[in-house]
Write a structure and sequence with these properties.
Oligomer: heterodimer
Largest sheet of chain A: none
Order of helices and strands of chain A: HHHHHHHHHHHHHHH
Number of domains of chain B: 2
CATH topology of chain A: Cytochrome C Oxidase, Chain A
Radius of gyration of chain B: 21 Å
Largest sheet of chain B: none
Shape of chain B: elongated
Structural class of chain A: mainly alpha
Organism (chain B): Pegethrix bostrychoides GSE-TBD4-15B
CATH superfamily of chain A: Cytochrome c oxidase-like, subunit I domain
Strand content of chain B: under 5%
Family (chain B): Belongs to the cytochrome c oxidase subunit 3 family.
Number of strands of chain B: 0
Number of domains of chain A: 1
Distance between the termini of chain A: 21 Å
Largest interface: A-B, 52 and 41 residues
CATH topology of the largest domain in chain B: Four Helix Bundle (Hemerythrin (Met), subunit A)
Radius of gyration of chain A: 23 Å
Number of helices of chain A: 15
Keywords (chain B): Cell membrane, Membrane, Transmembrane, Transmembrane helix
Subcellular location (chain B): Cell membrane
Membrane topology (chain B): Multi-pass membrane protein
Chain lengths: 560, 209
């Protein structure tokens, strides 16, 4: 996918906003997709830190069976905030950040389809997040991130009201973002780029935005009714007044199961970009990966009741949802095997981006396998609401999404800032994260099988030794973020200049300057090859991508 | 409009595509995808209603009788007239679209004005109905569903009415909308049709079923 400056210079209008990006721009209602992308990413990392501190507070409390560090009420509040923040203010906005930054660059557009709406969507996130975090000062929500009624109607109106309002704002933001991604990918590709020649990240975002657009509004409907129950005293979900709490569960999971894919699909896409670049091989099974994203997106919409096997769901319905849930393992497996086949026989560069990408594959597979286990009704009834579920979802969301986000940061940081990240610090970060993740979450499988309930501050003393391991792991994870934050902040101004294309990658975002100019491309690129044509034999010499400043290539680059 | 934008978009990104007055001051114009975006948005909006409808149908299915025992009788005359008005207004607003496609701004104003009046009558009819109903928001599950669903739809009618009034305000200048450039007209019309279709389903579910 190299570029040719076909159009004569004179035919191009002067770039209207030519000039340097000022740091102040990042604090304004700026409509440049690159500014918005970085705003999303920095904001989400800030909330990641807050949610991370909360996680360590929870783990400190759980080090001993008694309630000795914080009160049980505060534990419930921190637990609810940790879940809500990590999902809606960390992983979802981080995915939106990468999508905003990368989609226009990857498809050769100058911006998103609706730049003002894009900025509006971002600026809904910080106020909603701050509102949610500050609720701990008055009365935080206590009913978990799922907020099941009737519990959520009994644990304090203020906190629950704040929770509903926060989610409505974040949901609206997410929908506006989804409209933008969808329209941009469908309508704004360079004329020579067919759907089947766009980078796989765009396929993943196409599937993600479809899920956002179909699922999130249903959650909004559920929150609307829950809000009426909470504030106006109606009884939609309150059994004491003739309501049906299971209807809330259906509506909630109709969004919140697809939300799992909203959180993982963008990173599937990012990993599909990172692995071929650092393995110097064409992606294995381009179409299979592309269509499996669509398949995951479709199947993801018809599996939601597997969260409700213990909610009095009739047997025939359980059977349907058990089968659809297990079928999802097929498209996911296609992706995993395609990534492995891409690496097979490749010239792998073991740099931080690739290490995290490989870590992603390994850790995600553990979460995927425990996912197939809990899809089975009898096993799920045994482990429902235990730490086995906590282990499963953290392997998917931490071992999967968070590893993916780290990999994507290491991979695209040179493009975003024009500077390389420090490799030794990156490798230290990877090692600590890998050890910390498995130390924290692996023992939880055993705890769950033995019957330790989740969401409770106190537990049976027989579980203490394994819980101490989990808590130690959580501290390792806290420490693991230090080399990352030091690296990210230090490299921004002091890192080795990266040049335009430090990885010798072929996708379009690498064919412009680093960081890209304000409207991305001086002349719009024309595609002459596929996005993953690495090491293809009949690749003519004059079509090799420009090797900018080869002496500045990092040691990890396969071309150095 | 749709046609001109589509052809421009396939031709070039780099040169000025949209010569809409006010967009021309040296700013590189981007292709116009607003109608596409609006359709995607309406798709998402319809999912809110679909979710609420499914919740309503589930409530209905699990109750032994529906509406629950003791729900006062519902009057069909006012909502029936209201339904007829809202459905007809969809045809009226389409006349405005036909008019502007012939560059007939006066026709646009007339038909949009008529639609706005019909929308306002619908909302007044709904307020009248609310004030005469013998059940309140918390009477039972049917009553709560009735108020929340019709109220949420009414909010959408109100927003559609604001859009129509906004277009009318802009159309006071003859040159604002033209044969080639009338996104506002199209958007208001699409939104109004959407609100209309939702009402038809709502009417079937709440009054007739």
């Amino acid at each position: 996918m190299t570029i040719q400056a076909e159009a004569p210079k004179s035919a191009q209008p002067q770039l209207p906003h030519a000039g340097e990006r000022k740091w102040q721009d990042y604090f304004t209602f700026n409509t440049d997709h690159k500014v918005i992308g970085i705003q999303y990413l920095v904001t989400s990392f800030a909330f990641f830190s807050i949610g991370g501190v909360m996680a360590d507070v929870l783990r400190t409390e759980l080090r001993t069976p008694a309630s000795d560090f914080i009160s049980p009420e505060l534990y419930n509040q921190v637990l609810t905030l940790h879940g809500t923040i990590m999902i809606f203010l960390w992983i979802v906005p981080a995915g939106a950040g990468f999508a905003n930054y990368l989609i226009p660059l990857m498809i050769g557009a100058r911006d998103m389809a609706f730049p003002k709406m894009n900025a509006m969507a971002f600026w809904m996130v910080p106020p909603a997040g701050i509102l949610l975090v500050l609720s701990i000062l008055v009365e935080a929500p206590q009913s978990g991130w799922t907020s099941y009624p009737p519990l959520s109607l009994m644990t304090g109106k203020v906190g629950e009201g704040i929770w509903i309002l926060t989610l409505l704002i974040l949901g609206t933001s997410s929908i506006l973002g989804g409209i933008n991604f969808f329209t941009t990918i469908i309508k704004m590709r360079v004329p020579s780029m067919k759907l089947t020649s766009m980078p796989l990240f765009c396929w993943a975002m196409l599937s993600t935005s479809a899920l956002i657009l179909i699922g999130t509004p249903v959650l909004a409907g559920a929150l609307l009714l829950l809000g009426f129950d909470l504030i106006a005293g109606t009884n939609f979900f309150n059994p004491t007044g003739g309501g049906d709490p299971v209807v809330y569960q259906h509506m909630f999971w109709f969004y919140s199961h697809p939300a799992v894919y909203i959180m993982i699909l963008p990173l599937f896409g990012a990993i599909s970009e990172i692995i071929p670049v650092h393995s110097r091989k064409p992606i294995f099974g381009y179409l299979a990966i592309a269509y499996s994203s669509l398949a995951i997106s479709f199947l993801g919409l018809i599996v939601w009741a597997h969260h409700m096997f213990t909610s009095g769901t009739p047997a025939w319905l359980r059977m349907f949802f058990m089968i659809t849930t297990m079928v999802i393992a097929v498209p996911t497996g296609i992706k995993v095997f395609s990534w492995l086949a891409t690496m097979w026989g490749g010239k792998i560069a073991l740099n931080s981006a690739m290490l995290f990408a490989m870590g992603f594959v390994g850790e995600f597979v553990i979460g995927g396998i425990s996912g197939v286990m809990v899809a089975s009704v009898p096993f799920d009834i045994h482990v429902h609401d235990t730490y086995f579920i906590v282990a499963h979802m953290h392997y998917v969301l931490f071992g999967g999404s968070v590893f993916g986000i780290y990999a994507a940061i290491y991979h695209w940081y040179p493009k975003m800032t024009g500077r390389m990240m420090n490799e030794p610090l990156g490798i230290a970060h990877f090692t600590l994260t890998l050890v910390g993740t498995n130390l924290t979450f692996m023992p939880m499988h055993a705890l769950g099988m033995q019957g330790m309930n989740r969401r409770v501050a106190m537990y049976d003393p027989q579980f203490q030794s394994l819980n101490e391991i989990c808590t130690a792991g959580a501290y390792v994870l806290a420490v693991s973020t230090l080399p990352f934050f030091v690296n990210a902040i230090w490299s921004w101004s002091k890192g080795v200049p990266a040049g335009d294309n430090p990885w010798n990658a072929l996708t379009l975002e690498w064919q412009t300057t680093s960081p890209p100019a304000i409207e991305n491309f001086e002349t719009l690129p024309v595609l002459t090859g596929g996005p993953y044509d690495y090491g293809v034999e009949d690749f003519p010499d004059d079509m090799l991508p420009p090797l900018t400043s080869p002496e500045l290539q990092p040691d990890s680059s396969a071309f150095s | 409009m749709q046609g001109s934008v589509d052809s421009a978009e396939t031709l070039n990104y780099g040169t000025a595509v949209d010569s809409h007055s006010g967009h021309a001051e040296g700013h590189e114009a981007h292709p116009d995808h607003r109608i596409f975006g609006l359709i995607v948005f309406l798709g998402a909006e319809s999912m809110i209603f679909l979710g609420l409808f499914m919740a309503y149908l589930t409530f209905r299915a699990v109750y032994p009788s529906w509406p629950p025992e003791g729900t006062p009788e519902r009057e069909l005359l006012v909502p029936g007239i209201n339904t007829l008005i809202l459905i007809s207004s969809s045809f009226v607003i389409h006349k405005a679209d036909v008019a502007i496609k012939k560059n007939d701004v006066a026709g646009l104003r007339t038909w949009f004005g008529l639609t706005a009046a019909m929308g306002a009558i619908f909302l007044l009819g709904q307020v009248y109905e609310y004030s005469n109903l013998e059940f309140g928001l918390k009477t039972n599950l049917y009553a709560s569903s009735f108020y929340v669903l019709t109220g949420f739809h009414g909010l959408h009618v109100f927003l559609g009415l604001c859009l129509i009034l906004g277009v009318l305000w802009r159309a006071r200048k003859r040159e604002h909308y033209s044969e080639a450039h009338h996104f506002g007209v199209e958007a208001a019309e699409l939104y109004w049709h959407f609100v209309d279709v939702v009402w038809i389903i709502l009417f079937l579910l709440l009054y007739l079923l």
